[in-house]
Design goal:
By secondary structure, the protein is of the alpha+beta class. The chain has 7 helices and 10 strands.
Length: 263
């Protein structure tokens, strides 16, 4: 499932290529039955909150959640548009560019009230500006009150929006925190450290399109498969202590960590 940096990156592309333009909106697959309601209208803006993408058209706001199978194809075009590849739920077309959306979990129009209802259920997003520090404090407070393991809390979008399995594993390793530790047993400094580390790391993903969690990884000519600290490294030596990286199932999702480094 795409994590928050991917959705923010897509929002930036939409903002650059399509915002301010009148778009043709269709549903080659036929499942997005409300496409006609925004077809021929102007896209005012695009933004993301966690894993949710919001495209604000003049008549309504389009909410898109890629889920596990959703994918985008965004390309330039000249003249006749290429045939859709696969089951395209929605196609957005301007004079120069088009975007095809396939397999999303959600693709629905909402009004302002509906939009506010969605975002009210989302936790703080490390990729959204937080100059006063209120969102960081909201995250810290929520974690410190919870008996739920921190490994589950980081995957709960109402606690922290945008973090998925990769960032979860990497953030906890960098913090030296065992994923099974209940939130309320952590210190304020530990939880705040997770937040500020996410704030520092996730913008790198937006800029590069890659999840970069190893400090200095881009120096030299690194191999892309070596960019993680523990994620998908089960059975391999920990990069710090040499112990084998462990894989478990936590709340139906794969969990990667080092028992020795994360106590």
């Amino acid at each position: 499932m795409p994590e928050g940096h991917t959705v923010h990156r897509t929002a930036g592309i939409f903002q650059k290529k399509f915002a301010g333009s009148t778009l043709r909106v269709s549903s080659p697959q036929g499942r997005f039955t409300d496409a006609s309601l925004i077809d021929g209208s102007k896209l005012l803006s695009a933004h993301a909150w966690g894993k949710q993408l919001f495209l604000k058209f003049e008549p309504a706001i389009l909410r898109i959640h890629l889920g596990i199978y959703g994918k985008w194809r965004i390309e330039s075009h000249e003249g006749e548009l290429p045939e859709p590849k696969g089951q395209v739920r929605a196609r957005f077309t301007s004079d120069k560019d088009f975007a095809d959306l396939r397999g999303p979990t959600a693709c629905e129009l909402v009004d302002t009230e509906g939009y506010l209802g969605v975002v009210s259920k989302l936790g703080p997003d490390p990729l959204r500006p937080d100059p006063k520090g209120d969102e960081g404090e909201r995250f810290v407070s929520r974690v410190l009150k919870s008996p739920t393991p921190i490994g589950q809390l980081l995957m709960n979008q109402s606690v922290l929006a945008g973090v998925g399995n990769v960032y979860r594993a990497e953030l906890l390793f960098r913090a030296g925190i065992n994923p099974h530790t209940p939130g309320k047993q952590l210190t304020r400094e530990q939880v705040a450290g997770i937040w500020f580390d996410a704030v520092a790391l996730m913008p790198l993903g937006v800029r590069t399109g890659l999840m970069l969690t190893r400090d200095g990884f881009l120096k030299g000519r690194p191999k892309l498969e070596d960019r993680y600290l523990v994620y998908k490294r089960e059975g391999l030596p920990c990069r710090v202590c040499g112990s084998s990286v462990v894989i478990e199932i936590m709340a139906t999702r794969k969990l990667y960590y080092c028992v020795k480094c994360q106590k």
